[in-house]
Amino acid sequence: MADHGMIPGIKVDKGAHPLAGCPGELVTEGLDGLRERLQEYYKLGARFAKWRAVINIGESIPSGTCIESNAHALARYAALCQECGLVPMVEPEVIMDGDHDIETCYEAPS
């Protein structure tokens, strides 16, 4: 791949799972053991990694707990990537499904 100008990367999160105590909200998991996994991926040739946080919009969501939990996980992931020599791709994905408009998507995480 590198001989053809491509830079390999890898998705390192373990998916979005229900956030305890927050119905309808998700938190992305996969921080446990991430440092060791990133070190191995670097040795195998990866130079960037991706982590996706899913933020749903609905009545009374996203909650502050959801935003803070996902922001914390994204920050820890990004710091570990940098520590291991990988460029972190941080993807906080605000889901557009529902009857809200694009402005609501923009305002939801703030």
UniProtKB/TrEMBL annotation:
UniProt-listed SUPFAM superfamilies: Aldolase
InterPro entries assigned to the protein according to its UniProt record, in alphabetical order: Aldolase_TIM, FBA_I
Any Pfam family: Glycolytic
Matching Gene3D superfamilies: Aldolase class I (3.20.20.70)
GO molecular function: fructose-bisphosphate aldolase activity
GO biological process terms, semicolon-separated: glycolytic process
UniProt pathway: Carbohydrate degradation; glycolysis; D-glyceraldehyde 3-phosphate and glycerone phosphate from D-glucose: step 4/4
Record keywords, A-Z: Glycolysis, Lyase
EC number: 4.1.2.13
Signal peptide: none
Catalytic EC class: lyase
Similarity-based family: Belongs to the class I fructose-bisphosphate aldolase family.
Protein name per its UniProtKB record: fructose-bisphosphate aldolase
